[in-house]
Each structure stands twice: as structure tokens, then as C-alpha cells.
Amino acid sequence: MSTPPIRLPSGVRDFLPRAAARRRSLAEKVMAVFEAWGYARIITPYFECADVLERGLGAGGRASAIRFVEPGTGEVVALRPDITPQIARVVATRMQEIPGPIRLCYEGAVTRFAGEAGQREILQAGIELVDAPEPDGDAEVLAVAAAALAHMGLPEIRIDVGHVAPAAFVLGSAPDAASRVLIASALGRKDRAGVRSAARALPEGIAPLAEALATLWGPAQPTLDKAVALPWPEPVMAALEQLRVVLAAFGELAEQPAPSVTIDLGDLRGFDYYTGVRFAAYAGGAPDAVLRGGRYDELLGKYGRAAQATGFAIDLEAVAQAQRSIGVAPPSAVIGVAVHGAGASELARALRATGLRAVVQQRAPEAWGAWLRGAALDAAIVGDQLIGSDDGSRSAKRAIEEARAGDTKALIALLKAP
Amino acid sequence: MSTPPIRLPSGVRDFLPRAAARRRSLAEKVMAVFEAWGYARIITPYFECADVLERGLGAGGRASAIRFVEPGTGEVVALRPDITPQIARVVATRMQEIPGPIRLCYEGAVTRFAGEAGQREILQAGIELVDAPEPDGDAEVLAVAAAALAHMGLPEIRIDVGHVAPAAFVLGSAPDAASRVLIASALGRKDRAGVRSAARALPEGIAPLAEALATLWGPAQPTLDKAVALPWPEPVMAALEQLRVVLAAFGELAEQPAPSVTIDLGDLRGFDYYTGVRFAAYAGGAPDAVLRGGRYDELLGKYGRAAQATGFAIDLEAVAQAQRSIGVAPPSAVIGVAVHGAGASELARALRATGLRAVVQQRAPEAWGAWLRGAALDAAIVGDQLIGSDDGSRSAKRAIEEARAGDTKALIALLKAP
Lengths: 418, 418
Prior knowledge:
Oligomer: homodimer
Mean pLDDT of chain A: 90
Number of strands of chain A: 17
Helix content of chain A: 25-40%
Largest interface: A-B, 98 and 100 residues
CATH superfamily of the largest domain in chain A: Bira Bifunctional Protein, Domain 2
Structural class of chain A: alpha+beta
Radius of gyration of chain A: 27 Å
Strand order of the largest sheet of chain A: 1-5-6-12-11-10-7-9-8
């Protein structure tokens, strides 16, 4: 029997040092923003009892959960496809005594089964604002989303804001599930002709609203004005007014300059999950949304604590890919030095004490330059030679003397520009 | 049908803010040490094809791996019980062109099936030094282990160092598997009478060596002296000499003050994995080892790159529990403030710009003190009142004026001592 090849399951991957540094840096930057806004980090497990996790998942989440039988107990467990239901569970059970609003944040991997094409392991970071008054809670999570995105080095950030009410009214008026699916699918593609055709099944007066939904996207003010000019029933009108108030409160709360905010009332992604204002953020270099969020007032009740809530998750993978595609370099490592020969340990200790990375290299590599590049180090100190990763070498005597004398600033400058 | 209760699978858990802050702080501290020593961080996936992962697992690792069928491909995958085989795979395949020594580090969760009693999801951080010359490579990983442990606030750190050669010689002399298991088990318990009894099955001359093994632990120098006075065959003598050289090189490399180093030649845990010098670290407050490591020269070859290697993993869960049991407090959060009322957004922005956490609190909680404690915030600024989490309140007028005037240092001092 031949040995099977060394391979990874589709959709999971390794991150080598440069890629890993980019992920860590992104995660740390957004977590720092979340914490500055008063969100406290929690950690939840990678898998849970499937029935517990699935209480809080919409149809899409349930379809994407990878389940297996846990050998210890024979229970069916599932890898988390989403962290929000886990936080809802924690807040409803272990934080039951804590009065709201509660602000929590997280980062970690989620695993989604998405057929042959889709990625499975996704690095996420996000926040949840529980017991959040409406509309201020919505404005706050939008402002945190904007602040987090502003720290990620992406151009052309745009936040698309919507509300589930108009589409829920239209889809709720459909006579049967089949026509509802047809309308939703055409809306999802912004296919006006398709919506018009599918909307024929709707009661008179509602078909034009369905058709209008496919066009209700664009700059915030004119799009909202266009929407409120239509003959919506009172609850939808109230939702649109709510949306206007949220955007005004966001303008007040957000750090300046705030990103561009647009409206999209026909976006249905995540629809089975959200109950009010929802949003998605886009950026130059990213083919799809890098962030999705919205209000989900019915989730916590499923875990026994009726509470309004809103939040979002950033797809750190999508952000990392966007950064790469537009040429944002990963964070450069702290300067690193290899030291070889007599007194190397002592010199390495002195270098580390200055905040440099320092390696004691026991064997002299045949080709120092190539080895330094592979080890992501900037220079080596070999006897009297200072060797850069470009293979240019010069006297290191002064560097070593300076490090021994404690004048490490000059040493760092020397190593930075060999 | 009644709804099943909200529960977690045994062995996994949630970390609420204080516990999560401790884990993050521990992980960041040890990763900073690893990076200072020139180790570059990589990220590997949570599950892999079972046959690929298991190439690099010893018998114990294979027994503890949780396997399931991946629904997309029908392949059997396994949650990683150990990150070292993943790094061996990455180095042997994706880093094949990079000359050694290669220094890599990681942090993340591993999942182990350990019956009813054992914990399943364990937070780990560790390093791997690939293509590491012996004995300097061993000394280096010991020095990095010592430096990492020194940053964790634990008292009475002790590193127990051993070598697999003496026990391998004794167990290799056993006439059959049954007597080998008996001797190993008695050695594991340091049960001298049990070893004496089981060693009767060994050839003459080897039984006394087996019995001696159960006593060969204690302070480094006398224990090594005692060991080399015994009639070991030449390869075991060479291994003991190697161990002496490693400890001397460690003394040279380690940051001062170096932790206490002891010898244990009868410790067999991780035995099917290590091929040379091995070690475990203990600390006050931790019932078992907080760190385990050693040389594993046969692992990378299983993935197609024959290379010596050595490394260790820190059990961050064990360290966190030890910190708790001896009363080390989790890291205190940055000072946090809630701001309520007119001008709150503007003031919150000014506070955040100073590095404080700041929340705009839309609704006035009935009991600010209780709410602040729950939200882990230190104070609230409500109109003219500065309210501490102890419910003592005083004028905040000056604080607000100072923040508006940009004199935030005085504001921070005021908030720190309300």
C-alpha cells in the first residue's frame, strides 16, 4: 500500500511567518480598537454540543456547521461556524446577573463547511453589544466598525447600511415559499427585471415596492429620501426613520474622518439572523464584504435571557487578502541579529535587552546571507564582521564594543543600515 | 420532547473577561520571549487529514486524537492534539528550501481526548528549533524555556532535565513487552520496590541499572555523578556526557538568574516521541508540569526532510491555574470610563485618544456602581458627577474641563483616584 500524500483538508491552511505576522497584527489592531471602546475580550471553545450551538444559528449557519460524534460522551458536537451564538449563550447563562449594556469582543477561527469552493477555517474578530438600546446601540457598533476598519490600511472603505423591515414586508407578502425564494434571489442579484417578473405573484400595490427594493441602494440621504417616498406600511416607515436616526447618531459618535456610508435596502445576506438595522463593509482590494453585522434581538432569548443585541464580525482573512492585493506589506519584524563565535551568548543577551531579536548561531552557515534571509534576520555578527542579509559585510568590531559598553542605540542604527 | 439543557462538552470551557485577559497576557508574554530569541511565529490549522497528522504523533498522541469524517470530501480528519507534528510537516514541505537552523514558535489550542477525567481543549505556546546541532540546540531551547517561565510570575520554577538513553537501554533489554510495561510503569511511579521486582526479568547486570534509574533524580551535579558511576554501556555513557555538556552550555546561554535545574533519568512521559535530551518544568502552585520538551530527531524525516530538532510546549492552562492558586491577579485592564449625557461622544473620543477605554452610555443605569463593576469600568462621568465603581461620587466638572482643554494627564490621575 502506498503512503497517502502529505496534504491538508481543502479550506484550511498554514500561515508562514510573513502571513502569520499579518494576521496577528490585524487581530491585535482591531482588538485594541474594540477595547478602547470598552469591549472586554472573552474566549469561547472551538466546538460545542451541536444542539446548543444550533439554537442560535440561522438556517445558513446550521447548514455550514461541521458535526461529529465526540468519542468521550457519544454526543454530537459541532465546530463553531459563528462566534455570536456562543457569546449569546455566555451572556444568557454565566453573565445572567450582570446588568446590561454588556460589551464583549473576541477573535478566533470559525470553521464553515461551504462545499468544494468555499473556505472553511476563517479568522474572525468581532464585538457584541448586548441589551443595547435602539437606535444608539446600532450607531455605536457602526462607529466601532468604522474605527476598526480605519486601522487596517485599506483604501476606499464603504459601509453599506440597511434594515430588514422593507424586504421582510415584501417577502412576507408573497403567497407561497416558491415565489418568496424567487423574489429574494432576484433581489440578491439586484436583477430588476427578475424582481419585476417574480413580483407578479405579489398582491397589487406590493409588487412595485418589491421592484423598488432592487434600486434602493446608493448614497445615504437621497436613497433614504427615495425609500420614504414610497407607500410603505407604518412599521416599515418607522424602520426607515429609525435608520435615519441611527445614521445621524453614527455621525455624532464616529471618529473623524468617518468612512463613506451608503444604503442598501435590498441586501438579504444574513437575513435569517438579523431583526433590524444591518450593515456590511467593503474596501478596495476586497472582492466581497470584509465585515458584516447588525441587530439580532431574538438570539439571546433562545438561551434564556430576552435582550436586544447588535454586533459585527470582521473577516480577517478577507482583510489580509485585500491588503496583499493592494500591496500593503506585512508588519516588518523587529530587527533581528545572529551572533556567532566567542562571547556570542553575552552579546545576544545585551542585544535582547535592547529589544532586538538575537540568535546565538552555533554553527557558521556556509552562506550567511541566504541563511539570514530564511531566518528573517537582518544581520549577523561573526567575529569582526557584520554581515547583512544582502551579503554585504563590514567591520562589526565597533558594534560589539558599543553593545558591551551599553551604547546600544548606536548599535541598532548600525544594524539597521549596514 | 423537552429541550436539552444548555451545556458544554466536557473538557471545553468559556473564558470570561478576567480569565481571558490572563490567557492573552500569558500568551503574549511568552510569544514576546520566543520572538526575542529569534523564533518566528507561524499559524497551523485546527484540524488536518488524520493520516498526515498521525505520521508525526507517537502512540499517546494517536490515542488522544479526536477524528471525524469531513463532510465535504469524506476524508477522515483529526483535531490536532499536538502542534509539533504540524510544524514538522510545514518545515519539511513548505520550508524545504530554507537552510537550517530554523526557529519557529506558535500559540493556540490543541484538543485531546483523555477520557472522562482529562481536559480536552488546552491552550499551548511553544517553539521548535529545527536542524539544531546537539548539544547547543538542546541548551538553547532550555534557555528559551527558562526565559519564558521567568516572565510568568510563578515561584519555585524548577526544570527537570533527562535523557532517554538510560531508560531506553534498560527497557530495550526486557525479554518481552509485558515485563517492559511493568518496569516502565514502576519507574513512572518512582516505585523502587516495584522496579526491583519487575527487573528480575532483566538479564543479570541490567536489573541493578533498572533499580538505580528509580533513584536517579535530584540536584544536577551529584545525580549525574551518581549516574556515570554505574556500569552503563558506551552509548549511554556518551548520552550522560552529552547531558553534562548541555547543562554547561545552558548555564552560558541562559538569562540570569537561571532557574533551578535538576535531573530525572527515570521520567518516561513523552517517551515514544523524544530521542535525546528531554525536560519538564514545574512551578509552585502547579500540580503537574507546566512545560514539556525535548529532542525529537526522527519526526521531520517522517515528512520527508531528515533533520534533527528540539522544542517544547508550555501548557498555558496549567500556568494560569498555578497563577490563580498562588494568588497572582490577572492583568488589570486599562482604566475605563463611561460618559453619559450632553457632549458624551466628544468627551469619549478625547478619552480614547489618551489611551483610556471610553464608553458612551446612552441610558443612565439605575445603579451606576453595579453597572460599572459588571462592565469592568472604573468610573462614569455623568453630568457634573464622577461616579466610581464603589458608588462614591464627586464633581467631574474639572475632569471634563481638563479633558476638553487637552490636559488629559490630570484627568487620568483624577479617574485613577476618585
